[in-house]
Amino acid sequence: MPSNDPSLKELDLNLLEVLDALLREQSVTRAAEALGMTQSAVSHSLSRLRVFFDDGLFVKSAQGMVGTRKAELLRQPVVDIMATVRQHILTEAGFHPARSRRAFVFAMTDVGELVFLPPLLTELRKEAPHCTVRTVQVPIEQIEGLLASGEVDLALGSIRSAPEGLYRQRLFLNTFVTVISARNMSVGCTLSLEQFQRMPQVVVSLEGKLGTAYDRLVEEQGLERNVFLTTPHFLVVPLLLERHPDLIATVPKELANAFSKYGTLRIVKPPIELPQFALSQHWHPRFHSDPAVSWLRALVKRTFEHYREPDGLSVP
């Protein structure tokens, strides 16, 4: 039996989509970018939402827009509704990349942006010229929730401790190499074990502390490194080595290749055998059959096929 409640006529799906973006981004500007809308259109939708809910919904603070109590109460229901719409309604309409204006969201680190984004954006702009891309860097423990809600479409990179419930497809294998300043004349074409242990090192750890597979392997071999700086940011490495030529760093090979193109760094083989690791794409089972996410996964896979690594798909 149809409802006569006039309020349902005033709340359309577009308003819920805007509220979802505002709750997530806490900024009219960022919400507009995520939705592919103008700031004035988002502001107008927010005004309608405030009238509908008879509440300010957001207040300004030093950290940006902060949700009111009512907005926070609405957060989970809105996330659930939008996830249901994306999974069960939009999927039936299909996905047409050439016409779509969807904003795709990737979770990746700064090294992921350097390695993945340039070739991926080239292909995406060819096939889906009106779609936009946004990247986010989030703690590993938040990735599953963001993928489950649809706030993130794919997580790209080497996520060694990713939740087992996620789908995972290997894109290619990578390994570690050591980089030194091009101005460092104390190291020739090879790096000796004595130099590797003695020279001050920059160590990259996303958690800000030692403990990666690479670090554990070094420790297992009984090697002591002269760790001078530990940082969570890969992209600071070239600048540090350029300004301090006595420093060295051991980083993923694809990242080192990108760094070396600028002529300020040289790549040398580490004096110890280091493990390979897989760079993969991860997604949530809720969106396994979503046409847009399926198309995006295929695009990502095709983009990196030149590495000629066999597929590896693990199912929950």
Rg estimate, integer Å: 23 Å
What fraction of the residues are assigned to beta strands by DSSP? 15-25%
CATH architecture of the largest domain: 3-Layer(aba) Sandwich
Total strands: the figure is 13
Quote the CATH topology of the largest domain: D-Maltodextrin-Binding Protein, domain 2
Low-confidence stretches: 308-316
Number of domains: 3
The CATH H-level superfamily of the largest domain is Periplasmic binding protein-like II
Provide an overview of this structure.
- With about 325 residues, the chain is of the alpha/beta class.
- The protein has three domains: about 5-95, Orthogonal Bundle (Arc Repressor Mutant, subunit A), CATH 1.10.10.10; about 105-175 and about 280-315, Periplasmic binding protein-like II (D-Maltodextrin-Binding Protein, domain 2), CATH 3.40.190; about 175-275, Periplasmic binding protein-like II (D-Maltodextrin-Binding Protein, domain 2, 3-Layer(aba) Sandwich), CATH 3.40.190.10.
- Helices cover about 45% and strands about 20% of the residues.
- It contains twelve helices and 13 strands.
- The strands form three sheets. Strands 4-3-5-12-6-13 form a six-stranded mixed sheet.
- Strand 8 (about 200-205), helix 9 (about 215-220) and strand 9 (about 225-230) form a beta-alpha-beta unit.
- Helix 2 packs across helix 3 (about 30-35), helix 2 (about 15-25) crosses helix 4 and helix 2 crosses helix 5 (about 70-95).
- The longest helix is centred in the N-terminal third of the chain and has 25 residues, at about 70-95.
- The chain is elongated and about 75 Å long.
- The chain starts with 6 loop residues before the first helix and ends with a strand.
- The relative contact order is 0.14.
- The model is unreliable at about 310-315 (pLDDT under 50).
